[in-house]
């Protein structure tokens, strides 16, 4: 979802506990999780529901759950959940828009003063207030979504294969005056920026276990990665809130990607697409990583939403089905996504 007006932003994060414990039983952490928690990261368990990853939270002491949605520029709360979460909406005259175009609906704003997730406490989190989904049960009845702004600002590590999310501890004031340090890598000593040592070690842990690193960028408030489909170079918007990967019909035509017509339509926030097709093609390359026998839906996407004709143009959405199948892990500090082939 894309918002048409900016909202105020105040961020602060405090890590409350030293060990990752969800209140019911301790989580068995892998090498990456152990390393992150040793270095002060807090974390929370995700729950897969309706093909999406939900984060259980407490908002001002009220329980809720948010879909992890890298495709949403901001964190959203559905209007139907406001009362249960004890939030007050400030109305705006700004309209909602999604990859399928602008809606007639308007969004509001609110502030979550204390958002608890796992052993983390995020304070003063601004949210956009939007209408509820048409068929909320298909999505696991979420209260909203945790968007890209918070994932980026709180230095999240999103680990889909282990269904965990970690948040970076607060940075100390003296970091700004630090100079670059040296860290040992397979290629010898390399200088790294202050605070980047954890991400460098994370990269080593994951690449040694078979993950391929892919740099991503944030452009027009969306996460995008370089890709190649049917030999045609492009960029894709990475969207953990998209049920399926979707290509814009105009790009699919240029890439000579056909498809089988269906009688179904795709739903965005406030607006739906027309009928979509299903397509399979030889391969989908994301950075240097190859997904063999790539598949996607094909539909008409809003030209403004995908940045058509600009340097930020994307060919479509890389959805959660390919991300989950290829064990996606995201490091929002260094803006790196890691993928690994599914087990045979």
Question: Secondary-structure map with pairings?
Answer:
Layout: E1 2-3, E2 12-15, H1 31-38, E3 42-45, E4 47-49, E5 52-59, E6 62-68, E7 76-78, H2 82-85, E8 90-98, E9 101-117, E10 120-130, E11 144-146, H3 148-153, E12 157-159, E13 164-167, E14 181-185, E15 188-192, H4 197-208, E16 212-215, E17 217-219, E18 222-229, E19 232-238, E20 246-248, H5 249-254, E21 260-267, E22 272-286, E23 289-299, E24 316-318, H6 320-325, E25 329-331, E26 336-339
Parallel strand pairs: 6-11, 7-10, 19-24, 20-23
Antiparallel strand pairs: 1-8, 2-10, 3-13, 4-5, 5-6, 5-9, 7-11, 8-9, 9-10, 12-13, 12-25, 14-15, 16-26, 17-18, 18-19, 18-22, 20-24, 21-22, 22-23, 25-26
How would you sum up this structure, described in words?
The protein is mainly beta. The chain has two domains: 166 residues, Acid Proteases (Cathepsin D, subunit A, domain 1, Beta Barrel); 125 residues, Cathepsin D, subunit A, domain 1 (Beta Barrel), CATH 2.40.70. 12% of the residues lie in helices and 46% in strands. The chain contains six helices and 26 strands. It has a six-stranded mixed β-barrel. A six-stranded antiparallel sheet has the order 3-13-12-25-26-16, with helices on one face. Strand 9 and strand 10 form a beta hairpin. It is globular and about 50 Å long.
């Amino acid at each position: 979802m894309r918002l048409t007006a900016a909202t105020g932003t105040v961020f602060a994060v405090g890590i409350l506990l030293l060990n990752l414990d969800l209140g019911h039983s301790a989580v068995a952490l892998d090498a990456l999780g152990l390393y992150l928690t040793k270095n002060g990261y807090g974390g929370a368990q995700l729950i897969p529901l309706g093909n999406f990853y939900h984060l259980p939270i407490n908002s001002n002491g009220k329980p809720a759950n948010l879909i992890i949605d890298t495709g949403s520029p901001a964190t959203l709360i559905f209007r139907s959940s406001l009362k249960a979460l004890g939030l007050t909406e400030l109305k705006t005259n700004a309209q909602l828009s999604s990859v399928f175009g602008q809606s007639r609906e308007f969004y509001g704003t609110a502030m979550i003063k204390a958002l608890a997730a796992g052993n983390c406490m995020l304070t003063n989190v601004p949210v956009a207030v939007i209408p509820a989904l048409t068929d909320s049960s298909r999505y696991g009845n979420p209260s909203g979504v945790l968007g890209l702004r918070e994932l980026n600002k709180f230095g999240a590590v999103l680990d889909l294969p282990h269904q965990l999310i970690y948040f970076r501890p607060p940075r100390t004031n003296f970091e700004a005056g630090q100079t670059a340090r040296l860290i040992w890598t397979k290629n010898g000593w390399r200088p790294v920026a202050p605070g980047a040592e954890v991400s460098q070690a994370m990269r080593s842990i994951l690449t040694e276990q078979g993950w391929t690193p892919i740099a991503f960028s944030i452009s027009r408030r969306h996460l995008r990665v370089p890709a190649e489909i049917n030999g045609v170079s492009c960029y894709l918007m990475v969207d953990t809130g998209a049920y399926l990967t979707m290509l814009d019909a105009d790009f699919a035509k240029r890439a000579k990607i056909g498809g089988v017509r269906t009688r179904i339509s795709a739903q965005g926030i406030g607006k739906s697409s027309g009928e979509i097709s299903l397509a399979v093609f030889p391969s989908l390359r994301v950075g240097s990583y190859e997904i063999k026998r790539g598949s996607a839906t094909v539909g008409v996407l809003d030209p403004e939403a995908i940045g058509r004709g600009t340097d930020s143009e994307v060919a479509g959405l890389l959805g959660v089905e390919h991300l989950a199948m290829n064990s996606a892990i995201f490091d929002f500090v260094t803006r790196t996504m890691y993928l690994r082939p599914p087990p045979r």
